[in-house]
Amino acid sequence: MCCLSNEGSFYTHIYTCSTAGGVSAHSVLTSSCSPCVGAKGQGGHSSGFKEGQQPIPAAALPSAPRERESNKATVRLSQKATMPLTRSLSMGSLSGLPLWDQEELPVEDLLLFEVAWEVTNKVGGIYTVIQTKAKVTVDEWGENFFMIGPYYEHNFKTQVEQCDPPNAAIKAALESIKNNGCQVHFGRWLIEGTPYVILFDIGAAAWNLDRWKGDLWNTCSIGLPYHDREANDSLILGSLVAWFFKELTDQLQDKPNVIAHFHEWQAGVGLVLIRSRKLPMATVFTTHATLLGRYLCAGNADFYNNLDKFDIDREAGERQIYHRYCLERAAVHCSHVFTTVSQITAVEADHMLHRQPDVVTPNGLNVKKFSAMHEFQNLHSMNKLKIQEFVRGHFYGHLDFNLEKTLFFFIAGRYEFSNKGADVFLEALSRLNYLLRVHKSDVTVVVFFIMPAKTNNFNVESLKGQAVRKQLWDTAQSVKEKFGKRLYEALLRGEIPDMNKILDRDDFTIMKRAIYATQRHTLPPVTTHNMLDDSTDPILSNVRRIGLFNSRSDRVKIVFHPEFLSSTSPLLPMDYEEFIRGCHLGVFPSYYEPWGYTPGECTVMGIPSVTTNLSGFGCFMEEHISDPSAYGIYIVDRRFRSAEDSCNQLTQFMFSFCQQSRRQRIIQRNRTERLSDLLDWRYLARFYIHARHLALCRAFPERFKMDSLAPPPNQGFRYPRPPSVPPSPSASLHSTPHHSDTEDEDDHEPYDEDEEAERDRLNIKAPFTLGAVPEGKKKQPSDYGN
């Protein structure tokens, strides 16, 4: 196992620099080291250097890159192009980027490759990043953009259209790999933009695993245990990728130049091998979350307050992920440009991986605007009706609350109970239930937990509820048809019908039977499925603790749906997007969330959401909006407040939301939807452009130059609080929440939707023009509103 510790005199570092010719020189420098922390029980070698290998004297080792001073051209460029951490990592001030409209990359002379484990292979959030960004990248790079990932037959058959490579050099490189006994597939990924994809068959190349493990050890002194399937598969993919790029660069003869962008440690193995073989390429590495950060937060560690106190090597070793951590850190230090997805993750990476990111590349979405301004409001109404139908069936026999005064909240994502904030959410729901009951509110909140867990089947009571609902609907339709026919015939005869005769005895019997069928002697189930670990499940255990069992007296009802949503489900036949549009509020009080796509997806659909200042999305919005809650972005402080205070703050947010009138919610949804321009890849893709340009300048300084950048002002543009109708009443625990149909004094304040929308559109676009002010005009505080 390798030693990448910087403690004491032990230091192994894959050190990169640029030579005069622009080709990266690479050396693995290993000082004398004792057996690695965490190597025990993980297989591989137990020390930082091979048996018989002579360690390099400490005097011959250069200092760590963070402390190294050099007068080389590339390093000088790096110092010019990057600002101090507090500024270069700030996304509130987008003026830290060049004017790309005037300074563009010569894409016709470049080839861009994006390497990720989730190319055509949906595993997590990185799939969304790659898939949604594909269109803007293809629009910019055209036939010179390619994605690389692992081959899975079922994904390839349904998602990829096979074709021949358009580039002769790529075709020759792939043929060379095939001729040496490995399988590789080429085609177009059938998503928006239809990018080219190169997919390597990992299983067909597994016979090389032992040899490639030896190469990795000889090159980097990193050993992989035989039992870690994911790490071994990553090594196979990385070796194939490095092999491909070696063949490609030999074919190209330095023109056009190649940029390779790697996502996460699984793909980063290829980057390490590329740099060790000194291939003439520019490399970018993006970490979407640090390995150790996710593990530590899942273990309920006080992570962000102790970033500088963790013994990184020991923590990784205790969790049996030391070899993975070595691969991740090696990729970070080998790359020409290192990026993260958010400012909070940049701070984390600086402590966990010992390198400050060069660029923060926020995640975006493909935002599709409706031709009619309020079309998304209509979609909300339509999908809300579908959710109401589910609620009617799930709560049959206990449906003593008015669905027109019922709000739908939800939390969704991976089942990481603490990381996703489900623990804080449940406690806040208990307190919200108390407040609504004490204030005798007629508002009911139905909360959905959409988190996949281990189940064996649907809950019988849940299925029965939907069957009873359908039976009642069929009965009502049958009686209605008879009633309508008899009423029609009476009117034809010129008679005023006797209502007691319109419905006969049989009709009353049918209706009484239907009502009898709705009687139930048990409470509506909390979960829609049979859980395999019911007694130890974190959500169900906490539901038992707080006592929210969907009783009649509860104003907060809970529905745990431990499965991804699908339009073919017999219970809740809705896609995830339809479900989001039908809800009123998404709640994501995450403790560890490097970016957070779920609140972003809510935003582009016009649905308010709760996030935290420990999520990349929350930090991004907090920097851009003076009063986020006015725009439907509620940010819980989980970094500088205690857990108790954070829970109370979340409770207050939800309680205030319950006090809104229907008109206030509509206004707030309009404002939320207008923020979607902030998350559009057409704006955020420029961060990737900047990272690629910087990588080219560092890899090929003789061909690519970057002008020096003046440090931007620390204060970025902040959107003012809307001056019109407030989105919610002033926070007060002494006021009784009013239901959605009641109009209050605030509702009579003037509100011009078109005028406010135009102002917000200008505000949103302003920071992406790099804060430029026309000559002769100076921005005044009054320009930003009150």
UniProtKB/TrEMBL annotation:
Gene Ontology BP terms: glycogen biosynthetic process
Organism: Pygocentrus nattereri
Domain of life: Eukaryota
Enzyme's top EC category: transferase
Pfam families documented for this protein: Glycogen_syn
UniProt feature, compositional bias: Acidic residues: 742-757
Pathway info: Glycan biosynthesis; glycogen biosynthesis
SUPFAM superfamilies recorded: UDP-Glycosyltransferase/glycogen phosphorylase
Biased composition (Pro residues): 711-729
Family: Belongs to the glycosyltransferase 3 family.
Keywords, in A-Z order: Allosteric enzyme, Glycogen biosynthesis, Glycosyltransferase, Phosphoprotein, Transferase
Protein name: Glycogen [starch] synthase
Catalytic activity: [(1->4)-alpha-D-glucosyl](n) + UDP-alpha-D-glucose = [(1->4)-alpha-D-glucosyl](n+1) + UDP + H(+)
InterPro entries assigned to the protein according to its UniProt record, in alphabetical order: Glycogen_synth (IPR008631)
One Gene Ontology term of the molecular function aspect: alpha-1,4-glucan glucosyltransferase (UDP-glucose donor) activity
